[in-house]
């Protein structure tokens, strides 16, 4: 089944996010029909901070090896690693030439602001013109940065869909009413970030969410398992919690 079609099944697509070939291959072996990447995992593995636009080459390198997997792969390209629409479009066209099925493109900026709607829609349109077959998951950080803003979310979801986005991603959205409002407004598949205890899969299924992704959760859980296993050598029972997103950022921040 193609990547676009996986968003229209009887239940939400569970999209686990890998950070290297081994994690991706292990997830495929476990039976997942598609794999995404986590920008935090890619950045931290390279000793860099996430969401600062500094991992273009690492992202491309990972895409090249993940393209060997026998399932569709979608790549998190943060904000596209450029403010120029033509540069972002060229990047996605290159990813498409490698066999990558989708991209995640966000409107959040490193300074905590959101890209202007007009700019973001121009980027989306350019990407779809350059790589029409790629599933463009347009992420808006209206719930991720600062106070949740439903009105701004709906405005952006509508504008991004009209510009050609194949799906809308609103990380941090959890409430039923907010999710239903985005579904009713965007009229394209909705991606929700899995947040333990807050976005239960069964509830997302009932609401009609199309895709549930894990973001950095698997990478952070792997760090937790690594530390606990190492401590266990000395008889320490481990038990350290998984690091938060901020914890990982602080690990690699110069």
UniProtKB/TrEMBL annotation:
Residues 233-254 are annotated as: Disordered. Keywords: Lyase. This is 2-methylisocitrate lyase-like PEP mutase family enzyme. Pfam families: PEP_mutase. InterPro entries: ICL/PEPM, Pyrv/PenolPyrv_kinase-like_dom, Pyrv_kinase-like_dom_sf. SUPFAM superfamilies: Phosphoenolpyruvate/pyruvate domain. GO terms for molecular function: lyase activity. It comes from the Bacteria.
């Amino acid at each position: 089944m193609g990547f676009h079609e996986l968003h229209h099944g009887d239940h939400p697509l569970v999209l686990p996010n890998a950070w290297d070939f081994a994690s991706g291959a292990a997830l495929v072996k476990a039976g997942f029909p598609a794999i995404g990447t986590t920008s935090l995992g890619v950045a931290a593995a390279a000793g860099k901070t996430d969401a600062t636009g500094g991992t273009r080459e690492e992202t491309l390198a990972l895409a090249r090896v993940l393209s060997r997997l026998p399932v569709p792969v979608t790549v998190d390209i943060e904000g596209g690693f450029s403010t120029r629409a033509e540069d972002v479009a060229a990047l996605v066209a290159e990813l498409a030439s490698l066999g990558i099925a989708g991209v995640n493109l966000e409107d959040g900026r490193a300074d905590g602001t959101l890209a202007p709607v007009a700019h973001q829609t121009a980027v989306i349109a350019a990407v779809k013109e350059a790589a029409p077959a790629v599933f463009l998951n347009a992420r808006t950080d209206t719930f991720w940065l600062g106070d949740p803003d439903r009105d701004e979310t709906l405005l952006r979801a509508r504008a991004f869909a009209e510009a050609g986005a194949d799906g809308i991603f609103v990380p941090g959205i959890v409430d039923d009413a907010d999710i239903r409002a985005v579904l009713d407004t965007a009229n394209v598949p909705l991606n929700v970030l899995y947040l333990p205890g807050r976005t239960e899969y069964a509830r997302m299924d009932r609401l009609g969410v199309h895709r549930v992704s894990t973001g950095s959760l698997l990478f952070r859980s792997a760090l937790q398992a690594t530390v606990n296993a190492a401590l266990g050598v000395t008889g320490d029972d481990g038990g350290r919690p998984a690091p938060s997103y901020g914890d990982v950022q602080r690990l690699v921040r110069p």
